[in-house]
Design a protein that fits this description.
This protein is an alpha+beta fold. The protein is about 30% helix and about 30% strand. It folds into three domains: about 170 residues; about 90 residues, Beta Barrel (Thrombin, subunit H); about 160 residues, Methylamine Dehydrogenase, Chain H (7 Propeller). The strands form seven sheets. Strands 1-26-25-24 form a four-stranded antiparallel β-sheet, with no helix packed on it. Strands 2-3-4-5 form a four-stranded antiparallel β-sheet, with no helix packed on it. A hairpin with a 5-residue loop joins strand 15 and strand 16. The radius of gyration is 32 Å and the shape is elongated.
Length: about 450
């Protein structure tokens, strides 16, 4: 046995232990590389360093296996040693460069990479570098004049590991994601007393009811889910981190766009840069990541219960109401008006602004083929223009925010049945939007001249 060991380690023969390490590490490099590509195809779309690492691991692993085979069969494969050391050095440089890119996206990757493609890609490149270096080490006694190559390759690999290991060590200890446990969704309110349940200060660009409350997009492109009853923040998704991700041909439009909610309210979908994202509206968990088209489609228009839709023909104000089979079930004329809301009973609110900035509102009842004119509603709130989006359906009532108050109207007659004071504070502070969410009526307050664009979401119940 000792004779065999001396024979294996004698000058002129490769070190069998080093070749064994090279073979094992080469196999692992290929396996880890394939696992990274298979389990993180969507993550690859936003972090270009990951496919580079994965393919480095696969190529390096295959090269190490081939080099080990040549070294074991040929007595003096000097060229193979040089190539193996060079490959190890390249793997180290790739690790050094790519890890720096990944470190800046560590929080985001932890959120969007539940399968650990990042760790697999890093492990693939590391294993490939070690396998190639082990091939050169197997020839240490055979080619002492080439030890400088081995040292150079080792230095390059160690430099790459020096930045990779800290990243890999902290990655598993980070939170799985900024998500929460699922919560039962409260019902939509059918009436309110006007009591302020909560106030959420901050600039938002979009608000949609979803899950057990509502989802917002902030001015820095952070998508957040809130509890509709308490106003408490439940989860966050750093969508702004995806800005600048290249598509196949060019940079896509920056910022969160095309925000929409599925019909059942369980999923939130949007696009940011070149990535399309689907989140669980209840927990904030990432359900799907994919390549977004160059120009994401806008959110779908107003739909009717049962899958119907509203179609406007030409510029003459003719509207057709279609059912889910695209059959016309109602048609009417409402010049210069456009639909802004569909109520739970299928009634449709259409609004228009005339040259005098007066708001004209019509409620259409498709099932009854009749229209109801709503009496004049002021389009200003304390002298500030009010957006037409300040409408919401609350039970069987139509809510309108403006003129320093929230009005509850009977959509069947167009008359005001209740008047609630505006919860917006500041002077001026206008109602910029209303939204019925699970557990509350959400009021979007805005004051462009106060606190440099002060905005606040107020929950009423």
């Amino acid at each position: 046995m000792s004779t065999d060991m001396r024979s294996n380690n004698a000058p002129g023969r490769p070190n069998s232990a080093a070749l064994g390490v090279a073979g094992a590490a080469g196999v692992l490099a290929v396996v880890f590389g394939v696992a990274a590509l298979a389990g993180g195809h969507a993550v690859m779309a936003m972090a270009g360093a990951l496919p580079i690492l994965a393919w480095t691991g696969i190529a390096g692993g295959v090269a190490a296996l081939a080099a080990g085979f040549v070294i074991a069969r040929r007595p003096y494969p000097g060229g193979t040693v040089v190539l193996a050391v060079t490959g190890a050095g390249i793997a180290g440089v790739v690790l050094l460069e790519c890890t720096g890119d990944l470190a800046g996206r560590r929080d985001l990757l932890r959120v969007v990479d539940p399968r650990g493609a990042t760790i697999y890609a890093l492990a693939a490149a590391i294993a490939a570098g070690l396998a190639l270096l082990a091939c050169a080490a197997a020839m240490w006694r055979l080619a002492p004049s080439r030890r400088a190559f081995v040292v150079a390759g080792a230095v390059s690999l160690v430099a790459g590991l020096g930045t990779t290991v800290p990243l890999a060590a902290t990655f598993p200890r980070m939170p799985e994601s900024r998500t929460v446990a699922p919560k039962a969704t409260p019902p939509l309110p059918d009436s309110i007393r006007g009591e302020v349940a909560y106030r959420i200060r901050g600039t938002t660009t979009s608000v949609v009811p979803a899950g057990p409350g509502f989802v917002t997009v902030s001015d820095d492109d952070e998508v957040s889910g809130y509890d509709g009853v308490t106003g408490a923040l439940r989860w966050r998704f750093p969508a702004g981190e995806l800005d600048g991700v290249r598509s196949d041909r060019l940079y896509s439009t920056r910022g969160v766009r095309a925000l929409r909610v599925t019909e059942d309210g369980r999923q939130v979908r949007f696009a940011v840069s070149a990535v399309a994202v689907t989140l669980d509206a209840n927990t904030g968990a990432v359900l799907e990541l994919s390549r977004a088209p160059e120009a994401a489609a806008p959110p779908p228009g107003l739909t009717l219960p049962g899958g119907g839709r509203i179609r406007r023909d030409g510029d003459n104000g003719a509207f057709h109401i279609l059912n889910s089979r695209d059959e016309v079930i109602d048609e009417f004329s409402a010049p210069d008006r456009f639909p802004v809301l569909v109520g739970p009973g299928g009634w449709i609110v259409l609004a228009a602004v005339d040259d005098h900035r007066d708001l004209s509102v019509v409620v259409r009842w498709p099932a009854e083929h009749r229209s109801v004119e709503v009496p004049h509603l002021a389009l200003t709130d304390r002298g500030r223009p009010v957006r037409v989006e300040a409408f919401a359906a609350l039970g069987d009532r139509l809510m309108y925010g403006g003129n320093g108050a929230i009005l509850a109207l009977n959509p069947s007659t167009g008359t005001v049945v209740e008047r609630l004071p505006s919860p917006c504070i500041g002077d001026p502070a206008v109602i910029a939007g209303l939204e019925t969410v699970p557990g509350a009526l959400l009021v979007h307050c805005h004051a462009s001249f106060l606190y440099d664009g002060f905005e606040e979401l107020v929950g009423l119940r």
